[in-house]
Fold:
Amino acid sequence: MSTVEYLESQVLTATPHQLHLMVIDGAIRHATSAETALQSRDYARAEAQLGRSNECVAALIAGLDSTRQPQLVDQLKSVFVFVQRTLAEADRRHDPRLIPDALSVLRLHRQTWLALGEKLAQESAPSSAKPRSSFSWTS
Structure:
């Protein structure tokens, strides 16, 4: 199986939660690559990588559903717009020092998304499948 076929298979069989995580990971990966490119003054590669990272962030924004919890969605959208503006400014100025701010936000969102996934998995697991603590008040 080729790399492209493998990636297609991953995307086609992923849950919505996993797809969101893949997009976050893409944004982080491309922004990190752009930071390295800017540090080495490879502006063409940096521009391409920042563009890809911004496309990922745009996909995150597009996936927001404002029909549920509109205030929270608006706040999250503002955070992602900050990331986009920061990456665009890093590209415009050719300044790799701006990228860590955007990466910090993306990494925090990734950690939050992972924690949410774990919580949802625990809540949806049958009660008999949940691990029991070995703690007892009588022991």
The two ends are 54 Å apart (CA to CA). The chain is about 75% helix and 0% strand. The mean pLDDT is 88.
